């Protein structure tokens, strides 16, 4: 497997090369022009890319020139925002430029196997963002299902979500228990919930 080491800092390339030369065939790009030239002419199994060499626009150009090579971005000052930004642009790995020898070796193996390597903070942020998006989507979907309810049906759904019985709901709304049951049948049909539990879960997600 061939890895392209890309940095304008010779000491960084030398460090990476010392750690990886026993296991992989290595090429070196010591400038942005060299990197672009390599990417236009060759496909690599992996590109170790120094963050200081590129901005987002340049990275996008590199991806366009060489869409098949995996890219591992290494940053002198890694942070969650940067990691997530470049992850969306197509990196398969993100770490500190001076990652330990053991972890760089492991990270290289992991990304070459087809997985993604991210620092713990970036991974936690990614999970949190994903969770928040799923919550927002769930809330939006729930609200759409509840939007068809009348004002009275919405009141009943709210009381169901609080765990009240039909008798309690009837007393609170000053209606008969039979009327509550009729409203519930309509609510179940409109929301496609079919039970008190499902209705309560739906309402509490909205």
Q: What gross morphology would you assign? A: rod-shaped
Count of distinct structural domains: 2
Strand content: 5-15%
Main structural class: alpha/beta
pLDDT averaged residue by residue: 88
Low-confidence stretches: none
> Which series of helices and strands comes N to C?
EHEHEHEHEHHHHHH
Radius of gyration: 28 Å
Helix segment tally: 10
Instruction: Look at the structure and give the CATH class of the largest domain.
Output: Alpha Beta
Distance between the termini: 51 Å
Q: How is the main sheet built? A: 5 strands, parallel
Helix content: 55-70%
Number of strands: 5
How are the strands of the biggest sheet laid out side by side?
Answer: 2-1-3-4-5
Judging by the overall fold, what is the CATH architecture of the largest domain? 3-Layer(aba) Sandwich
State the CATH topology of the largest domain. Rossmann fold
């Amino acid at each position: 497997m061939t890895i392209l080491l890309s940095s304008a800092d010779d000491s960084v390339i030398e460090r990476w090369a010392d750690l990886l030369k026993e296991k992989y065939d290595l090429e070196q790009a010591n400038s942005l022009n060299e990197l672009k030239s390599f990417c236009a002419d060759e496909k690599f199994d992996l590109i170790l890319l120094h963050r200081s060499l590129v901005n987002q626009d340049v990275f996008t150009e590199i991806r366009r020139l060489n869409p098949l090579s995996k890219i591992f971005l290494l940053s002198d000052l890694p942070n969650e925002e940067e990691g997530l930004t470049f992850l969306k642009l197509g990196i398969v790995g993100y770490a500190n430029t001076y990652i330990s020898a053991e972890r760089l070796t492991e990270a290289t193996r992991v990304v070459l196997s087809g997985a993604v390597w991210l620092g713990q903070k970036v991974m936690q942020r990614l999970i949190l963002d994903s969770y928040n998006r799923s919550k927002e989507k769930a809330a939006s979907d729930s609200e759409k299902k509840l939007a068809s309810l009348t004002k009275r049906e919405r009141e009943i759904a709210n009381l169901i979500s609080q765990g009240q019985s039909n008798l309690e709901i009837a007393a609170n709304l000053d209606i008969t228990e039979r009327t509550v049951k009729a409203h519930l049948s309509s609510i179940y049909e409109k929301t496609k919930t079919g039970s008190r539990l499902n209705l309560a879960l739906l309402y509490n997600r909205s």
